[in-house]
Amino acid sequence: MKLVRDFERRLEQLVDGMAGRVFRGKLHPVELAARLVREADLSVEEGPTGPSAGNVFGLRLNPRDLDTAVPSKLVRELEDLLESTAADRGWRLNGPVQVTLEPNAALSPGTVDCRIDRSTGTRPPWAFLTAGNGTRHAVRYNRCLIGRANTSDITIGNPGVSRTHALMWRESGETWVVDLESANGTEVNGASSNAPLLLTPGAIVSFGPVALTFRLA
């Protein structure tokens, strides 16, 4: 719940009285944030690269609880909370997070109905892998498949790189890479292992013969 508490602190920095204007009933933005995190957790499924969560959330509330004019800044805060939660827990999101708050008179006051969908879309990079010639590969997904295959999240067209070579992901504030039983192995600063290897900014990660520098965006 640390991320929800962080959300509460950020909320205090918003326009004075905004929460009271938006949530007219018993609901409070922090309660809604906690509900979003729980719903996102329940949506997690095991995918080809590991745990994957929904990224489109529609929250329906009784009009007595929610004003029709929802400040965009509050919506962005809720979306940022879900992005941070996914990064902290190591979930993959296949598109940008989208949150909508919708009045629905069919719901009882004080209750929330949540609709979750999965939508693909372009995500901003959270890191880059840069070659010595300046070529940059943007790391856009929290769990990112790296390999020679065109279906990889990052495609490296070198015959020494396996089709599905390695997996990179964020979790609990750290970045990891693990070799996926590739033909030529994965190294970080010259060290190899069958177990996940920690990546820090500036580290040299080698996928077979291809060496790239890891940097956060």
Structure notes:
The chain is of the alpha+beta class and 217 residues long. 22% of the residues lie in helices and 32% in strands. It is built from 4 helices and 16 strands. Strands 7-6-16-15-12-13 form a 6-stranded antiparallel β-sheet, with no helix packed on it. Helix 4 (72-89) links the parallel strand 3 (56-61) and strand 4 (98-103). The longest helix has 18 residues, at 72-89. The radius of gyration is 20 Å and the shape is elongated.
Keywords:
217 residues; alpha+beta; 6-stranded antiparallel beta sheet; 5-stranded mixed beta sheet; elongated
Which helices and strands, and how do they pair?
Blueprint (H helix, E strand, L loop, with lengths): L1 H11 L5 H5 L6 H14 L2 E3 L2 E3 L3 E6 L10 H18 L8 E6 L8 E6 L9 E4 L5 E4 L3 E5 L6 E2 L10 E6 L2 E6 L6 E3 L2 E2 L4 E3 L4 E4 L2 E7 L1
Parallel strand pairs: 3-4, 8-9
Antiparallel strand pairs: 1-2, 3-5, 6-7, 6-16, 8-10, 10-11, 11-14, 12-13, 12-15, 15-16
Helix pairs in contact: 1-3, 1-4, 3-4
Number of E strands:
16
Distance between the termini: 26 Å
Order of helices and strands: HHHEEEHEEEEEEEEEEEEE
Structural class: alpha+beta
Principal-axis shape: elongated
Q: Level of helix content?
A: 10-25%
Largest sheet: 6 strands, antiparallel
Q: Whole-number average pLDDT?
A: 88
Rg value: 20 Å
Number of helices, counting only DSSP H or I runs of 4 residues or more: 4
Brief overview, please?
This protein is an alpha+beta fold and 217 residues long.
